[in-house]
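Hi team,

Below is the intake form for AAA+ ATPase domain-containing protein from Lonepinella koalarum. Please confirm the fields before the structure is written into the shared record.

FORM ID: S-0412
PROTEIN: AAA+ ATPase domain-containing protein
ORGANISM: Lonepinella koalarum
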Amino acid sequence: MILKSDLLECIASQSERLQGLESYPRKMLAQIRQLPDFALIVSGIRRSGKSTLLMQLIAKHTKNDYLFLNFDTPQLFDFEFNDFALLDEIIQEKSDLITLYFDEIQVVEGWEVYVRGKLDQGYQVVVTGSNASLLSRELGTKLTGRYISKELFPFSFVEFCEYLDFALNSQALDEYLMVGGFPQYLKLRDEEILNTLLNDILYRDIIVRFGIRDDRSMKRLTLFLAGNIGNLISANKLKQSLEVKSTSTVQEYLNYLEQAYFIQLVPKFSYSYKNQLVNPRKVYFIDNGLQQAISPSFSQDKRRKLENAVFWELRRQYKEIYYYNENNKECDFVVCKNSQPILLIQVCWQLNAENREREQNGLLDAMGYFKLDQGVIISFDQQDKLIVGDKMIEVVPFWQFFK
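The structure came back. Fields below:
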């Protein structure tokens, strides 16, 4: 429970701080449409720039017809659902309000009901949060057909280059693979920023939020995953290596890490959903810079870092991503749209006499399986073309493929 005066002070101070910020315009900004009667929900990992994105949306207003409130602040730690009545009083006192911007509102239980009410009253509502639970089934019941969802990730490679005024080339890519794309870290280059971010996500978004008592196991799991980018994992094997009591506990921990956007687990492609569930999944970590802070010994495995960067570039555009493993042949990424494979990608730092047959054959096998005539090998800086029978493989540098 809070005081109305505290709420007013919080709104005023936050709005003043927003107006003084300078920021790089995110690519997502051009994709966002605020529709009447629909809430816009933007989710993503902490410090990926969601508050800045809100500021950029606010900057489009020509009048003072909006209200901004970030709930993730010490002044509002005691905010409860009943306190929305105080917020309603403030909103009603501002007769010209059209749009309500709520940052990190998911910390208040029942927020979906309140947002639905504001939509019914004719307000436009924009919500951000650091947890994928924002997109959970709760929205399906309480905001049915009344929201549009977007996900914001740390800087893409193009955003990284534009932010730092780098040319799109292999030199910039080499830097990007090491430092990642968290905006604040790129600006200040202080390792403590990444260490603090790691602790915030682990404790505030996972351990405290889900009431985890065995925080040591959660930390060990996070460290293990950070050092195993692109590797296959299963809850059963992780249980043994981490000495956790049950497979279900490990699975819960993995789900929490995914909800916090820390990792993403990629299933094996199969037309059977059951087979997708029983096969091991490949793990990818949200950001190479954050991964570097957690697992410095991994720093020299540039091929894995490249694969991780490729995954997240794909993830910005697609949600249906799988790996292929049939006939003892592997292909890193099967990208689907409406359950239909549209793009096959192999990742290779540099194609040479030692690895060419393995990389080529895995991609060709996937091309035959899906009856596709073209495939792509994404390299660090190599460009080439292979034609095998009626199949064509393009070898394309990362910085050119994702420009």
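SUMMARY LINE: The first helix runs from residue 4 to 19.

Thanks, M.
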